[in-house]
Design brief:
- The structure is a single chain.
- The chain has 2 domains: about 1-90, Phosphorylase Kinase, domain 1 (2-Layer Sandwich), CATH 3.30.200; about 145-325, Aminoglycoside 3'-phosphotransferase, Chain: A, domain 2 (Alpha-Beta Complex).
- It is an alpha+beta fold.
- The protein is about 50% helix and about 15% strand.
- A 5-stranded antiparallel β-sheet has the order 1-2-3-5-4, sandwiched between helices. A 3-stranded antiparallel β-sheet has the order 6-8-9, with helices on one face.
- The chain has helices at about 5-10, 55-70, 105-120, 125-135, 145-160, 165-190, 235-240, 245-260, 265-295, 300-320, and strands at about 20-25, 30-35, 40-45, 80, 85-90, 95-100, 190-195, 210, 215-220, 225-230.
- α3 (about 105-120) crosses α8, α5 runs parallel beside α9 (about 265-295) and α9 (about 265-295) packs antiparallel against α10.
- The longest helix has 30 residues, at about 265-295.
């Protein structure tokens, strides 16, 4: 779709009468357009055709409706989902896109509180909502499936699409011993079924966090849901912050999250696993994207390769040093 066809779509379905449409930006898997008609503003989210993606907007709508039923207000409202066009229309939230490293002390406290609100949601609450709403229930994603999707599948893609370059060999040699260490940390961590936004990690230009006049909102919920044997999402967030960022930011985020927790030692084991998960998974994601392009001259090839190399370099500290030195 383009702005013209989006206008037709909105008017034909009587969602807006005289919309003005412009591109907001392109994410890793989606294009987002702002549609305005007077005081009404919607974000039209469309899957990109130039990158591989799964159908995720149905999941996004499903869990936005669920958390809205719980009174959680730091997410957009779902307006319309169209599976035929793989399109999701949500309410527009005014504000500035930031990543976790851009938050001031007050904003960081709000961010942590909202993370904990999500992590406290129980699967029993979800089942009760499902029974009332008539929505199709979604089982928690298993740890085995998550490992397969984020580690095994990516390594397979890297191996199968690689042309034998030194970069690809470097990635594979780096990853293999890290996987065993990650699984050891996994076994040592007290994990449980947890609800996650699952995409709040640091990224160039933002991290699906929007600072508003009222506080902070989380956007782009397409990866959200329940996960079995999951670490608190704070670990994944901490595991994404690059080494070029002042370490005080990571330390303050860690201290804000653990303050007042009754069993910090147990929590640390879960956070450790979450950090290692991110430190391994992020470079593999970037290397996978690089290999899928199969063209070093592609505009994004250099970016993905650089992200993978920086991620591997950053990860060495966390895989070699004890947790007590991390923050």
């Amino acid at each position: 779709m383009n702005p013209i066809t989006i206008k037709h779509y909105l008017t034909e379905r009587r969602l807006l009468d005289h919309p003005k449409v412009r591109l907001l930006g392109r994410g890793e898997a989606n294009s987002n357009y702002l549609a305005e008609d007077g005081n009404r503003r919607y974000v039209v989210r469309i899957a990109r055709d130039d990158v591989p993606h799964d159908a995720r907007f149905e999941t996004e709508r499903h869990f936005i409706l669920f958390i809205e039923s719980l009174g959680i207000k730091f997410a957009p409202r779902s307006i319309c989902y169209d599976s035929a066009h793989e399109l999701h229309i949500v309410s527009y939230i005014e504000g500035a896109d930031v990543s976790v490293i851009d938050l001031d002390e007050t904003q960081m406290s709000i961010f942590v509180d909202q993370l904990k609100q999500l992590n406290r949601i129980t699967y029993d609450q979800y089942v009760a909502w499902w029974a009332k709403s008539g929505q199709a229930v979604q089982k928690p994603q298993s740890l085995a499936m998550r490992n397969k999707t984020n580690i095994d599948k990516r390594l397979h893609v890297i191996r199968s699409l690689a042309d034998g370059t030194s970069f690809v060999k470097k990635v594979l040699d780096w990853a293999e011993p890290k996987i065993d260490m990650l699984y050891t940390a996994q076994r040592e961590a007290p994990l449980k079924t947890t609800f996650l936004h699952d995409d709040l990690r640091w990224n160039e230009g933002g991290g699906n966090i929007r600072v508003t006049d009222d506080g902070i909102a989380f956007i782009d919920w397409e990866l959200s849901g329940f996960f079995e044997n999951a670490a608190p999402e704070i670990g994944d967030v901490l595991g994404s912050i690059p080494s070029t960022v002042d370490k005080i930011i990571s330390k303050n985020l860690y201290l804000t999250y653990t303050a007042g927790e009754p069993n910090v030692e147990e929590l640390n084991r879960s956070i450790r696993y979450g950090v290692l998960w991110g430190r391994l998974g992020n470079p593999l994601w970037a290397a996978e994207r690089y290999c899928i392009l199969q063209d070093e001259n592609h505009p994004n090839a250099k970016r993905y390769k650089l992200l993978a190399e920086l991620g591997m370099k950053d990860a060495e500290f966390f895989f070699k040093q004890p947790f007590s030195l991390w923050f």
